[in-house]
Amino acid sequence: MLPDPVGGPGMGPAPVEGMQPYAPSLGLSPVLTSLLSLLLGIISIVVTIGALRTFVSEETEQIPEAHFRHNLLWAGLNLIIGGIIFGITIAIGFLFLVVPGLFLLVSLFFWEVYVAVEDQNFIEGFRNSWRLTRGHRLRLFGLGIVVAIIALLVSIGFGIPGIFLPDILGFLIAQLGSAFFGVFFLATVAQTYNQLTAMENEPRVETAEERT
Q: What whole-number distance in Å separates Cα of residue 194 and Cα of residue 175?
């Protein structure tokens, strides 16, 4: 993914003093690029909502269309607003050394699942995620480290071909790797959520059985 310093057709402006372009240019105007980015962002939100709903459910044969339609506007708006607040909160936590930021990240991590799957607003999602992770935060932090290592390995593995292939092919392969990891990440989040909620409900099930 290192085109020659002079630059070529479709590669954007020539780099400055030995700097290399980080990705191929599509030759689009700034307005079209902004609209395309907005469209991709909306598609990403819809896919995230549908994927979380599918992975949390017991559906294994097909992806129900309802997962991409049900309460979509409400969930999407809450994901956008909640994502901004979540990012600011985590950033403030990291300003006060690293530990508070990591603690908040782990504690509030499942708020998106509550928004996408349980039709809750982002405030309820934050509150329920905090409750759900109580007593499991250290293990969840360990799981996060494992996922981060996998992300690094996937990034390296899909990035290596870009060294030998033309720039556009290397870029597409890298994006393919990113897509694979995105699916793996959402599946991991959903299954971890299912396990935590099952553990949370176990005492209630046992109490009901004892009464019967």
A: 29
Is residue 96 a contact partner of residue 74, using CB atoms and an 8 Å limit? no
> What is the pLDDT at residue 204?
52
DSSP string, 130-175: HHHHTTTHHHHHHHHHHHHHHHHHHHHHHHTHHHHS-HHHHHHHHH
Contact between 116 and 49 under an 8 Å Cβ cutoff? The reply is yes
d(CA 35, CA 71): 24
What is the mean pLDDT for each group of 10 consecutive residues in the chain (212 residues)?
A: 38 44 57 82 88 84 80 90 93 84 91 93 94 93 92 87 79 84 90 91 51 40
E-assigned strand segments in the chain: none
Residue 134 and residue 72: Cα distance in Å, rounded?
Answer: 29
